[in-house]
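Notebook, p. 212. Picked up where the previous page left off. The plan for this session was modest: take the two constructs that came back from the sequencing core last week, fold each one, and keep the raw output in the notebook itself so nobody has to go hunting through shared drives later. Recording the first one now, exactly as returned: residue sequence, then the structure token string.
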Amino acid sequence: MEDFVKRNIGLVAHDANKKDLIEWCLWNSKKLIGHKFYSTGTTGHMILAALSKKHPDVKWDFTILNSGPLGGDQQMGSLIVGGSIDYLFFFTDPMTMQPHDSDVRALTRLCNVENIVVCCNRSTADHIISSPLFQDATYKRIKPDFSSYAHRFANKPLVEEAVKSVIEEQDTKQTLEKEDTPAPEK
């Protein structure tokens, strides 16, 4: 028997795609048992209710975040950057402009930066969950090394230049203020 590997799975869906994600979770519920889930507010409550109805004896491990437009997308992004998400199933609505579209773009960008599997539709999600790698206990994602980017200013005197510039500017300002101050009357 294969070793079970517990995956940390993010679940997000735009309003027009909530039913699709709920159905996908129900369809794949046996493969999802035992994993840890993080989901934005409304989506998470609905999926948890559906899974609990289908499998009343299973204790599902769900952490429900805020609603996406109310900060849930940022919370999910923070979990991705912190290494707490292995897969993000984010069913997006390509036909409707979202009021928090910048958050959506940022979230999918973070998946790319952190090399996290992200599925934005049901077809991709079907392929991912049916991949042998999904249940392969030996599979580990390769975390990109951005240390050169993070330390790109290490050998540059930016801080010293900024401090020197501000001190010189303040000294010049004080000198000008002294020159403009009339002498006290005697």
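Okay, moving on. Second construct, recorded in the same format:
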Amino acid sequence: MQRPFVGSKTLMTFGFNRIFFSSLLNPLVPSYQLENQKQKGFSSSSKDSGNSPIGSPTRVQKLIASQSDPLLAKEIFDYAFNQPNFRHTYSTYLILILKLGRSKYFSLVDDLLRRLKSDSLPVTPTLFSYLIKVYGEADFPHQALKTFYTMMQFNCKPLPKHLNRILEILVAHRNYVRPAFDLFKDAHNFGVEPNTKSYNILMRAFCFNGDISIAYSLFNKMFKRDVVPDIESYRILMQALCRKSQVNGAVDLLEDMLNKGFVPDSLTYTTLLNSLCRKKQLREAYKLLCRMKVKGCNPDIVHYNTVILGFCREGRAHDACKVIDDMHTNGCLPNLVSYRTLVSGLCEMGMFDEANKYMEEMLSKGFSPHFAVIHTLVKGFCNVGRIDEACGVLNKSLKHGEAPHTDTWMIIIPVICEVDDGVKISNVMEEVLKIEIEGHTRIVDAGIGLENYLIRKIRAKSRAS
């Protein structure tokens, strides 16, 4: 079956008949027929196309651009290339190189580059920008690096964006970090000076490889070479120091950053707050949280929740309550994570009344407490003999459609039965029946436990009498 080539209108414009184009793709067409068709096609088209029997370079370019099959486009290119008095335009080369590159026909791309060079056509940096992108997407770091040096062969001066894109491709592979560093150091020899982004790319790569000293050296060289670091430059080093548990060094960098007039962004503060909390430097974390607004960066919910979690982890939930108060003062409303973390922390400290207050506040704002939070609060009240409060927590959660876990039922039901012989449990069960029982409700297992408990209790009373 003949492979479709182009539409009939395009064929007429191009000056060939259908048989000739088919014969270009189908070698079974007899050569004498091909020759006859070529002669007819050439004689008719040469009148319209000047010196070239196949039409103008612009027409050929459009035909190549219209092909979805890159190999078919290459056949058209080659055929036109070999015609007398015909010369492809730079745009045609660019279009075909992109088609072949995206389809990963890299050997054909190299061949086209050699032809382009021999044609001595003026080349723009756009070609190499596309090539670098193609090699990067194909995960070919060596070819991307080769492209940088190929630019010199075309007397095309690399731009910082070319250097940076190649550096990004190289450092994505651990064994190409050193070649990237060599290219970075030699870049000025090729007329391109590394900029702030270039330094950041290398600094980040060395930090991830654990070579913080080299990253620091690059950072210091920026000042010597009149390259101005940006917020990201500082953050890269801060994150590296925090990963190494050198949080004090990261704080010093923050001070240096502020002294130089930079305004740290949200991510920079998040990094430091996380590290300070993990190092249990909670006082410093809270001070940093308070300084943020003064230094031009309003704390957001992530910053507040980070410090709340830090306090609760260290058994200082009462200090976390102060952070919640600060949030309201600064116009940042607590979210579900804020409340869940705080209620759990207060329960672990035995501050059940405070925990219950914040759970009520959470429910009033439409937030859903995790069943683990309900369990912790119910268990806490039961352990100190405050059954009424435990039942209150259970009732509130049920009214809001929250289903306590089986373990919660197993804790509270026996205690209620022991206290008042089923009066309170009757009220609780009435609330249970008011809610829609679904697969996650976990009441059935508790009912089985209740049945066994009541049987044991009845038997015990019978033996006693």
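Notes on construct two before I forget. Residues 1-50, 435-442 have pLDDT under 50 and may be disordered.
Flagging for discussion at group meeting.
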